[in-house]
Protein 1
Amino acid sequence: MMQTWKYRGFAAASCLLLLLWAVMLWQGAGALGELEEQELQLHRLQEEQAALERLQAEHPDVEKYQMEVEKELKHVGALLPDDMETAVFLQEMKAAADRTGMVLCELAPEEAAEENGLLAMPVRVTLQGDYFSLVRFLRVVQNGSRLMQVAAMDVASKGDFLDCRLRFKIFSEKL
């Protein structure tokens, strides 16, 4: 009988130890999961810190960088104004033609219409000049202060000069 109690005690102690061992393994697995999650978070934070350090190295003067960003935002805002501002655009086209040596023969805005959620106004432009003046004009217009699209372009030779018929589309946000 004493022998049976020893075996039962041994079996109970073994079961208890086995249960404790299983609990420790289960807790260890949970701790490993938390450790992996923390390592992932640490890796993300290190990447973010590296990106911030690169940004700081590229822009050591924060105030100057902030001014550049504000200037760029202002420029982007001017590309797509709230209103059509047709008169300003027409003046810019005239100035571009004068600056590049092109003769402006016609500058005629047409009726604006909605296009992809924006207001689009076609503008017909007829110019005369030599090839290099036309190239300069197109570069000036491309680098202008306004978002626009060349919808059509027809160039014909008239002796030493080119007769150019362009159709631009200018855009604004208000419908």
Protein 2
Amino acid sequence: MIERFFVFVKRAGVVCLSLIALHFLALWFIPQHYSLTFGLALIIFMFFFFSVFHYVLLRLGSQRSAALFVRFFMGLTAFKMLLLLFILTVYVLFNRQNALPFIVVFFVTYVSFSALEVIHSYQFLRKVSS
């Protein structure tokens, strides 16, 4: 289980570094439209956030059946989505001038890390069920 988690962290680190590079490219090429100075912190937050939730998912799913793993995955994903939606809503309500860049960076990081988590969870589920 720990080996699978470290594989996820390595892959998530590559995604995180790619998103950071994309963030700095956006700051370099379109500074008049993209002035989100804490995009780096948001990307790093999402990296740790998804890593913690994926560890919990692997921990809960490794001792039980494949059907129960799917339930844990769906429940944790729904909880994670609601928690992140709450964070997004609070930020947009209190900081309207940077709302659009924040939403774009938030969306790109969420989709990237979610796709990685789904792929990694599918590989884990296939290994557990066989």
Protein 3
Amino acid sequence: MHRRLFYILIAVLLPLCLCAQEQDEAVSGPKRSKRSNGVYTGFSGGMMVHGGYLFADSPDRIFSNTGLGNLDYVKGLPRDGFCYGLGGTLRFHLINHIHIGAEGFVSTMPLMKTGSNVRTGWGGACIDLYANWGKVRPLIGGTIGGGTMKRLFVPDRSNGKEYADEDDTKYNASYTRTPFFMLDPYVGMEIGLTNHMALMIRVDYLLPFGNMKTVLTEGTEDWKNYMSPSGPRLYVGIMFGEMNKR
């Protein structure tokens, strides 16, 4: 499903870039100035890769699974790590200072070198404010929407520890899938490369809120619970569109 989303974004962005170039050649200078003074001042979109560092208060918050085994084993599990991923965004420019649009991303946090991982996919509506400092455009904004956090735990039998008590059910692996509502504040900048292309650099901090209770998890945590792991991510990508109308 995530690959399909990326293909759709690419299929949408390429025609938009070609359209922008044709309009750039067809519109004269005075006419362009008149259009740029209106509410709509252009559009842009592109793909971004990211890397980040995620963490949680305790290992059981990482996996959200009380069936992992005895307390000593759970304490030895990781509670932080690096993540990587990619995604895309499509935006319209308003009054030469506002971006409004939609975006979606997928991020994977590998753990334990056993195949265990936390994979997060999210998307929603984004809006930010930007300034025009020549070819550099600083921006600040956020995204609101939702997503899913998928947690796969594969035990490491090479450490010689038992991962479950004798009287408990022993899991070879566990998998949980938790939907969430999210807020994603970010800051960044665009550096103009050409009239139709810019380098995007952005830092965000995803804030997911969901129901941590699953079939394998005890407790009464509700939808308002702040989920983890979470942490900062750095994004780098190329944006295409009507950059020359800013």
Protein 4
Amino acid sequence: MDKQDLDNLTTKQDFCRPQKLTEKQETKLLEATIFEREQFKDKKPLTKDDIPNLAKVESSEHIYLAKTVENPCLTHEMKAILDEIESKFSKENPEGFFIIVSMTRIGAEQMKANPKIADKGTHPKGEAIDFAAKFMNKYFPDSAKVLKQILIEMQNQGKINFLNEEDSTSFWHVSRRLK
């Protein structure tokens, strides 16, 4: 698979996400996101009127935004985190790129993605990114290895919350860390 082939992929299932999560996967995901949700509990979910005030994210040499991205934007603070990830990635893997499958979701988009935490998660607050982990490991393993290492390092530095959801959603979920 080549980078240009990615333009033909239009659903999250094309990026290895299961059609529906099992009850066990849902429970594990809810438990894993407790700390993250607690950090952002006082921040209200975004509406479509908030979208123009967010930082726009575009595909670049090292970032591929999949057609599955609902709203290509993040809070300015979370965009700074993505910029740092991209900067580190470009130094470690100048020829590589990583795939983002989801960022900011509002209203029905979030209900469709994960109704159990629709208004409590970080996606509806512009504070989260999902990377196509399982897909990248399969088709772009060198890039996946570099990206995962960067995410682990940034988590160890206390900059991000990094959830490896490969066994549930097939993605790597990243949010900004506040505490």
